[in-house]
Each structure stands twice: as structure tokens, then as C-alpha cells.
Amino acid sequence: MIRPLETDDIEAxxxxxxxxxxxxxxxxxxxxxxxxxxxxxxxxxxxGGTPVAFTWWRAEPGAFAFQGWVHPxxxxxxxxxxxxxxxxxxxxxxxAQVMRSVITSDTPNVAAIFEAHGYEITRVYDQMWATLSGxxxxxxxxxxxxxxxxxxxxxxxxxxxxxxxxxxHDDWATPYTPESMAAALxxxxxxxxxxxxxxxxxxxxxxxxxSKASPLNGRPDDAxxxxxxxxxxxxxxxxxxxxxxxxxxxxxxxxxxxxxxxVLEENAPAIRLYESFGFxxxxxxVHVIKKIR
Length: 293
Hints:
Blueprint: E1 2-3, H1 10-24, H2 31-36, E2 42-47, E3 50-60, E4 63-70, H3 79-94, E5 98-104, H4 110-116, E6 120-131, E7 147-151, H5 157-167, H6 178-187, E8 196-201, E9 204-213, E10 222-230, H7 239-253, E11 258-264, H8 268-276, E12 280-291
Parallel strand pairs: 4-5, 10-11
Antiparallel strand pairs: 1-2, 2-3, 3-4, 5-12, 6-11, 6-12, 7-8, 8-9, 9-10
């Protein structure tokens, strides 16, 4: 049976997603996120009275972005295909033109299911990991004249949004506003300003390293690099390398054992930077799309 999520389902679905996320090293979902989702934007598959698979989606102008989970104990029974059919039926009723999702390269059968249903790859990110425990990252770097480093503060919100937009001007389809930046921070239940480092010249953010406890696999001693960026006016001054070294040393001090990140597979300079700090590619995050009209 497939039906929308109900309030009484939240704990069981939370546990389903938790178990699938641990098995697949994918981001966790909170109880609050489940309580906040519109039931009409969900499909829950139940077998024998037990939730075994779940998907939710977000309707955007002309598109459906969706994500799904199948409990690791009941895979290879066609539940993923049933969820995909439910999402596509909802998209068709809504008049959507495009379906979008994100998968990982090593999750069993997922790539084959999407390929069989006509999805195409649009972007691929390498997932890389490095060991923090016992790794020698050197000493705290000497800062260039006029540059200071400190942690993020609430008053930095608008400047951080502007710095993100400048550093990733070719990557963000929708630029950050202070409001959307605040929402992104609020949605991150691992947010801790002690793990957000800013390199400043005066009050201007020149570069930033935003890290957190990893949302993958539920290990409390894994850290994650969310965004590493440099404003275009500060390129070729070594600020990204300097600030990254600073952040990795501080994360060591905070007793994290490993650290991961995603980087666009075609971003060779960034990959070389991360490899110089001991990061190695583990798998890939794959963005897929299907035109349905």
C-alpha cells in the first residue's frame, strides 16, 4: 500500500530514513523536517503494517525535486521502483515538465533504476575524505598583511551571503539572499559557528571555510566541509589554502577523526587543493534529471 505520510507515521519513518542513511552514508533527516513536510508531497509504502520505503518532493515552477529511501532490510523487492512511479504520477498530475533527484554512485541498484526510467546525469560531484586524527597539517599559518581570521557571527549574515554569491557565481542557480542564507543555517541541525571560519580584510569577507559535524552516517567524530570559497577579488593570493589549513588544525583540536566534502568532478584546481591535504575520492554524488513533457 502507498499513501501519504500521516502524523502517527513520523517516528517510524524517521527510523526508516535513519537506517537507510547510515547504510548509504547519506544526509540524515530530523523529526522537525518530517513534521514540516506537506503530506500531499509524500508517498509512504507500507508492507505488513510496517513502513518500508518513503519519498518526498518539492514542487518548483515546472519541476519536481524529490528524494527517497528504502529500508536496507527490504531492498531488491521493487520498492524503489514503486516509489519512483508514485512521484512521477504526482508530477504528471501537477503538470511538471522536469523531474530532479540526487543519488550516490555506490548505493545498490539506484543508478540502474533511474537509468532504466530515462533519467540522465546533469552534474557529478566527487565525495572525498581525509584523516584528521594523527595527520600533520603543519602549524597555524602566518596571515597576509591586513587579513584576519575569526569565527562567524550573526552580524556577518548579509556579508556571508554576498561572499557566497561572489565565490560561486557560476554555480548557484539561485543566489543567496540574507533571508535564504539564514534559512540554510537554520535547516542545518549541525550548525555551530565555532566551525565557520572567515578570512576578512576589514569588514569584508575575503574567503570562508564553513564546516560542521558530518550529516553522513551518524558518526559524531566525522566532520564535513560544507562550503570553501574565495571572493574573486582575492583569487591567487592563497587564501583558500591558508584558511583550509587553519580550519583543519582547529577541527583536529575539536577531536574530529575524519573529514569529508563534495567537489564538482571537473573542478581540477579544487581537487588538487584537497588532495594536497590528504583527501581521497571515495564515491560520487550524481544529479539526475528527466524531462516528462
